[in-house]
Automatic annotation (TrEMBL):
The lineage of its organism: Bacteria, Bacillati, Bacillota, Clostridia, Eubacteriales. InterPro entries: Znf_SWIM. This is SWIM-type domain-containing protein. Keywords: Metal-binding, Zinc, Zinc-finger. Residues 61-89 form the SWIM-type domain. Residues 94-114 are annotated as: Disordered. The keyword Cell membrane does not apply. Residues 94-107 have a biased composition (Low complexity). One of its GO terms (molecular function) is zinc ion binding. It comes from Candidatus Avoscillospira avistercoris.
Amino acid sequence: MEIPQTLYSALLSADEDYLIALCNKGTVNRAKKDLSAMQPEITQMEGEAVTLTVGDTVCTITVPLGSSTCTCPSSSMCRHRISAILWLKEQAAQESAPPGEPAAPSGEEPPEKVEDEVAALLSAYPTQGLTRQLGERRVSALVQRESAGEGAAIREGSAVTVELPWLSATVRFICPLEHSSCTCHSRSFCVHKAEALLIWQLRHGVVTADSLLAAVRNDTGSRLDRLEICAAVQTTLTDWMRTGLTRLPASSQETAERLAGLCHTSGLPALERAMRRLHGELKSYFARSAAFRTEGLLRRMSAVWRLAAALRKAPEQEALRLAGTFRDEYQPVGSLQLYLLGLQEVNLAGGYAGTVYYFWETQQHRYYAYRDLRPIFYEGRRQPGPIETILWGLPGTLRQSWNCRLKLTGARVSGEGNLSATTQCQGTLLQKSPPGLVLPPSAVEEDFSSLLARSRPGLGELERLAILRPQSGELQEYDRVEQRFSLRLLDGAGRDVWLVVRYREGMQAVLEVLEQLADQWEQNPDLRPVFFGALYRERDRLCLYPIECFTNWEGTP
């Protein structure tokens, strides 16, 4: 048997540190144990690749070793490939031994040139790309730790191992760099790898602390080309999809937040919002939230990938439209006669939380909203408690104006129907009134046949708002698996809309109110409650997410 020369050299230079860098120490030890109980068999040699059977699997070992393949379902470097590499390494060592002499130990130190190759790759890696990926805050903290002598522990050999105790991560660099590994299990060039490589460059004099800080302050990533950001987003999502949800590292949350920040500094507000919504879904997944749905995460990932792809391919003017705007454009609309119909506390997947107030305009017969939302995604920053909103010169908070008429003079509204908090707008608080005396009967849906068109995907929230007055209701058994409350609402013809609320933190009071209402309705079928909420579709069902419930529509709410 004659092993191809390129593969032969790669096998001889791959010591245990190199193999551990390809996977992990546990996999290498398991491969050694498996190898002691079986005998691989070479089935084919083609070019620089060797195919052999290892137990029930077939492995193809090639150069670089990290590109080897196996028929097992593992997407990472498996024990079968490591067993095959170890066995071939023994065969190569026997071939290199002079006749009549024993083979050299397979774990001997690799040639000096292997260490030199890794060092050359680490030295040549563009420092600017690392500082852009990490950002000024991380780079400054890195320099400070190095100056204080509290930096990373570095071991060098065929693999350069960098331990980052403040991140609970260990990075192992090998040649080629794309096959380097990190304990976060990310297959992409994660922030841990970027920080470890920058530390190595700093220790070896490739850069100095002063030049590093000067460079990062002059170029913090805000000048990154939009195409580069979109490409990075697509590459990251592709890597996540290949890895699979069950193997997705917890550090993907940090990666999503970092990419959202890069989108912000690069003038891509629509992509930033999409990434923050995806970050919220990832947080729900890793927190094992009962409200998490795999379909929702995949939908978010697909939406982000498609938007990034469209931004990369679109002409300049179309790309500007797709990029969106950071703030809504508010246009003056004169005076508005409003009625505060309802409000709800929200915690959005995009990283914002607060209160949304829903108004009915009595002259135009349409909905408006004021969104009092604040960011909650700033790491390490103390989050303020809820602040009651006072605006438009009103004598009290908006919450205190519930079910009251308001007159706004000098109002400004966005294209989606959101009200501006501008001080140029002046509000007058009028009398409190039951909703049934303010809203016309035509605004209340007792026939559900026309609701389906108002629930189609792509419609804005205000376009999906509806007021329903069902003929009857059927309380469903509480779903303990998906942890959700369901109430089937029926009109006079038996057409149904499902009122669904999933349990999550802060929803206990809402569920208790709905359960009490369902009990009252069951005892008094003539109750005829009114539900105000947002329509949506779930599989083959038309659903309503409730915002307010009224048991006496024409009287005291």
